Amino acid sequence: MFLRMLMRAAVLRRGRAASALLAMIVAAAVATAMLNLYVDVQAKLRKEFRNYGANVVVVAKDGQELPADALQRVESLLAGHGMAVPFAYVVARTADGQSVVVSGTDFGRVRKLDSWWSVSAWPQAPQGALVGARAAAVVSPQGAPFDLSFQGRTIHLASAGTLRTGAAEDSRVYLSLNDFESWTGVQASTIEVAASGPPEEVDSVIQEFGQALPQAQVRPVRQIMEGEARVLGKTRATLLAAAVLIILTSALCVLSTLMGWVFDRRRDFAIMKALGASERLIGGFFAAEAAMLGAIGALVGFLIGVGVAAWIGRVNFHAPVVPRLNVLPIIVVGSVAVALISAALPLSMLRRVQPATILRGE
Amino acid sequence: MFVRLVYESFRRQKRRKLLAWTAITLGVSVATAMIAVATGIGDKISRELRTYGANLLVTPQEDTLDLQIGGVDLRPPSDGAYLNESDLPKIRGTFWHHNIVGFAPMLPVNVSVDGGPENLTLLGTYFSKQLSFGKEEFVTGVRITHLWWRVQGAWPDDNSQDILLGEGLAAKLGRKAGDSIAINGQSHRVAGILSTGGVEDSQIVAPLLVAQQVLGKPGAVRRLYVSALTKPEDALARRDPRTMNSELFDRWYCSPYVQSIAYQLQEAIPHSHAEQIRQVAQNEGTVLERIKGLMLLVTLAALLASALAVSAAMATAIFERRGEVGLMKALGAANVSVAALFFAEALLLALLGGMVGFGVGSWLAHVIGQSIFGSQITIEPVLFPVILAIAVTVTFAGSALAIRRAVKFDPVHALRREA
After folding, report:
1. Structure pTM?
2. Are B368 and A238 inside 8 Å of each other by CB?
3. Do A37 and B294 touch (CB under 8 A)?
4. What is the enclosing helix (H) or strand (E) of B109?
């Protein structure tokens, strides 16, 4: 009986029920999308911030060398949450006696870590060098092959491409680590690490590095860490403010629509009351109706909201926002609560009125 | 007659009108605040991104190669060319000087401490130097460009002989703020201990003047870091200015691209070479675009939500007045005049709601700007007519369907309240 009344009520007054449901769905969808975005935006933006390069630097302490397996140790500690690139440096001399800094590194990794390097062509073949824009003018002005010497040993290099960064790298010559080590016998002294994750994770990674490599100094690149924290914090705060505003507006919209809907049905209320239904039964009936509306609206809205968030993620970050299922209970409870409140308010108003007055249409 | 109808309708149905008005005001406030925040956020985040430090580096044109490893310059100080310190204030005379947040000159020299070997780096720079260009006075230095530098103790005065010790070096030498230290035989006071998380932690940082005295070259500057607010790079920005025609060049020159600011810096400082620091400059653009895009899409969602809120409120308000419509039609009113009445009411509500909503929205944007970014979010006056137009359009659109249905309703049913 109770169920049948619920069903009939919804079917008979399709128009009003549909508009109330629509308001509910839109509100739930918007709230879902905003909450999903708010939770996920940090991870999305962090990924963008990793483009700034290393946030942790591991350097051999004065007079000490990094162990040969330092890179493997660092990588195993990172366990896939980041990237590590080794660098080795010496000052070499060109054929006409000028000093130039030569660095050995892993081109494949550097390319991923330092995505801002503007490189005309990456070296592929052995003995290929990446020459900084300023260094190029000194070592091989026309891009011709050149010789470099270090402690009496000479290497013959082909200039594969030029490198432009606007910083110290412009005055250096980069070789592959293999070429570099067989030429100079010097090992990598610096490992630049881009550790992903929130600041606490990066801090714990730094501590682990320190323990695993006692001969190294491990320090965070504060410039990168602080900039990231600041911009992220402000963006999230703005998004939160926006989310609160939007959710509040849609909740109020739902409230007014639903209140109108319940208020509109004061004649049903009066008839039920005149036929002898107890106030508890009527209250239960309207509450069940509102709760059902809230729940259905929340579920449909959640699905749409997840879609909207995913779309925003795809358009803006080129990666979909992963749906957060833990948002669902919040949305359902919130929707049902708003629906119940908007049913309770007009009912408490109607309760004071004689059914006869309503039925007479006054 | 028409005016009186509208007036009476507002006078007698205060509750319903208030409800609809509240919905419109609320919707417009949120829309205004979100539009203002979304248009202002690029500027705000751009300033926050300056935490990453300078995005332009100016070096002497005829310089020898840097011999920098791990931030330590191995080049003999006699080598290479220098910029002239007296040219620096000219930066304030460039076209985009309002976009230049600050600059800091650097002059590294080798010194000996406490009579030891000459193997320590002393970096001369501005901390917070008072300069003037023409009549304009301004302050610049590392305290503006290198925001991540922290000092325990006090920052030295730019005109004093006081210095900062990097924290690593201070620990090694056993000095703390307030102690004195002999640099190349001269006694200096340690004003504070500097922590940067970079190579400066094992260096001495001093006013530029001190470094120039050590070097014996007054007015010399090795490099200049410039921190500028820039526009994200696009296809035009990447083009070579030498290949542009004059019209295109003007457009390029008058856009705050990092490239055009570099070009203008080279013009302002003789014999210099300005280059973007790609690590900072390139990534800035991406991050900025992402955040702006995000806020734009969120604003769209906000607009949609408020439009629906307004439509729902209007539809409810009209739906409740079927009886009235029936009565008017029974008395012989044409459909057109009934619709006109409703639209006139909607217009009035939209204008009232739009104006108040704009005020509330501006205040909200102000609160958001102050509490999150600590600075004002400016609201363009042109936004006001736009917001009013949006309010009226949305209110009309929201009412249209309900009005159509109300007008089509048979007056007999309406009067018998058989809805």
Report:
1. 0.81
2. yes
3. yes
4. strand B100-111
